[in-house]
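Practice record 12: protein with pyridoxal-5'-phosphate.
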Amino acid sequence: MGLGPQAFIDHSALEHNLQRVRQAAPNSRVMVMLKANAYGHGMVSVANTLQDADAMAVARVGEGVQLRKAGITSPIVILEGCFDQEELLQAVQHNLELVVHEQGQIGILQQHTLANPIACWLKVDTGMHRLGFPVSRAIDAYNALGQCSSVAPDVRIMTHLSNADDSNDPETDHQLRLIKPLLEQTGAIGSIANSGGILNWPESHLEWVRPGIMLYGSSPFNGRNGEDEGLRPVMTLQSNLIAVNTYSKGDGVGYGKGWICPEEMPVGVVAIGYGDGYPRHAIPGTPVLLNGKPVPLIGRVSMDMITVDLRTQPDAVTGDRVTLWGRGLPAETIAKHAGTISYELFCGVTNRVELIQGRPE
Ligand SMILES: Cc1ncc(COP(=O)(O)O)c(C=O)c1O
């Protein structure tokens, strides 16, 4: 096998993180977020490991169909719902549950008589202002679904937290205050909590919680790591050194000569770049683990390669193992250096990177 990037997926960490969700929300059922290829971790293999979850959720009907075709039998919720008859029939055929977030979706359900009514979740907008019926129109929408013969009884209600990444933000309490009367009035089963809600707002737990990022081992909170929350990283992205060169004081390294050598120094080239999903905006100084020890990124990130300062590791040689994030180097740290969030790092790993099921050696 040649040298190059591999993303190791640690399924025991997934199981551990699911247990962490259950520990934090012991009275709730758990709907695991598998959308976007399970946040880049491989949707079908993650689904197989998380079969103990009470339900799974994806954004689009096509993702749900893919899970069914792979033999997944758990309840599957489609977070964006369906947008035409064809999608509705696919959802029925594959026994998917639908989120209903706008009037047109109610119309589609009203226009089609289904032999087996479909389970639905009404999405209410309590402040995210992305999807969902405004609180003022939620009761009408709830009643309309309740009266629709194609909709299974006991429509459930969900909302999504917009600011749960900030533990001090009063917006979350505000959203909770808006949804609670609606749940009391309807008596519907409810779901509010994403990872932030699960870890920090017990009053958001209700009957169902919807963990995403915490399952994959990252903290949802600014300035914290998964380890701080008792989570384990699931993805470890590794590659190898493919060259070690020595340059003189004043030599520029990489595109735009983004790094000028302050002295004669060894420079390592690692086979990973933005073509693999390593963030192009990672700044010089972003840590990389070389044989388990941190060395700083220098110069610009290229499509297939990055360069690292080897002055603290003069014995490094071609073939040495490099960790870009994961075990020993939190993805949150890299995200911070690249001006992004770990969600985007995980989802951005491209299909050029082999996903290996298991832990790195
Ligand atoms: C509707 C919904 N619920 C839950 C989640 C999970 O959020 P998190 O990954 O922050 O736990 C998401 C993710 O964006 C979502 O869109």
